[in-house]
């Protein structure tokens, strides 16, 4: 059930290149993680994860430092972490994670985005039961067999390992994220093409014609909302 992670990231990079919106969203996520615990990634696992993910998106160092310094400075800016679930065209399923300082604004924006693009918001649990929380780690320079051997030596039994383009992709339990990364780093690997905690659909669906175009527009509108951090769905857009 590969999701073509490298292609997804390339499309995001092209889309966000001109707006730098992805950097602003990372800045907010880093700030929230740093403020919730100590602003040190070695002592704050949530912050460590966000920084690992930011690295794969080439977030500039000054964005990271500014967010951490803001948290250290005792800013009273607070955000709520919220998850919304909904349906797109033809019953497609969507999960939206948001960080917001105005819950009413975010709910209204999301409802409008769904309603104007062939979808509707659902209740909590209406969609998420069809997704699995998954750690996804990707790397280059190793074969699938070499990665499997590294993980076996570290006594790590992950969900799946497969090759995608020139990278090896690992699906693991969320709580295995740091252990998998550390086992790979111990062999000299320093760069990762993917480092995500994501929601993977148990099954994917295909859309065509107007429904597909409408769905893609809905996803674009959702991802463009300032309060939205991540969007997950069960549509195979490469078909």
UniProtKB/TrEMBL annotation:
Major location category of this protein: cytoplasm
Localisation per UniProt entry: Cytoplasm
Keywords tagged on the record: Cytoplasm, DNA-binding, Transcription, Transcription regulation
Listed GO MF terms: DNA binding
Pfam families per record: TACO1_YebC_N, Transcrip_reg
GO cellular component: cytosol
Similarity comment: Belongs to the TACO1 family. YeeN subfamily.
Protein name listed in UniProt: Probable transcriptional regulatory protein OE105_10490
Protein source organism: Fervidibacillus halotolerans
Taxonomic lineage from the root: Bacteria, Bacillati, Bacillota, Bacilli, Bacillales
């Amino acid at each position: 059930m590969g999701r073509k992670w490298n292609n997804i990231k390339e499309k995001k990079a092209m889309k966000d290149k001109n707006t730098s919106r992805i950097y602003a969203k990372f800045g907010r996520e880093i700030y929230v993680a740093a403020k919730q615990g100590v602003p040190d990634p070695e002592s704050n696992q949530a912050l460590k994860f966000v920084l690992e993910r930011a690295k794969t998106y080439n977030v500039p160092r000054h964005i990271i430092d500014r967010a951490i310094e803001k948290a250290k400075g005792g800013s009273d800016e607070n955000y709520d972490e919220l998850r919304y679930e909904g349906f797109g065209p033809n019953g497609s399923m969507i999960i939206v994670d948001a960080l917001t300082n105005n819950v009413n604004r975010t709910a209204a924006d999301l409802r409008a985005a769904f309603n104007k693009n062939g979808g509707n918001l659902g209740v909590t649990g209406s969609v998420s039961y069809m997704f699995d929380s998954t750690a996804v780690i990707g790397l280059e320079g190793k074969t699938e067999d070499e990665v499997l051997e590294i993980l076996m030596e570290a006594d790590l039994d992950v969900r799946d390992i497969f090759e995608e383009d020139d990278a090896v992709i690992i699906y693991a339990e969320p709580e295995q994220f740091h252990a998998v990364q550390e086992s790979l780093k111990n062999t000299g690997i320093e760069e990762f093409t993917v480092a995500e905690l994501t929601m993977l659909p148990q099954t994917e669906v295909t859309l065509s014609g107007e429904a597909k175009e409408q769905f893609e527009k809905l996803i674009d509108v959702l991802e463009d909302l300032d309060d939205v951090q991540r969007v997950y769905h069960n549509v195979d857009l490469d078909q």
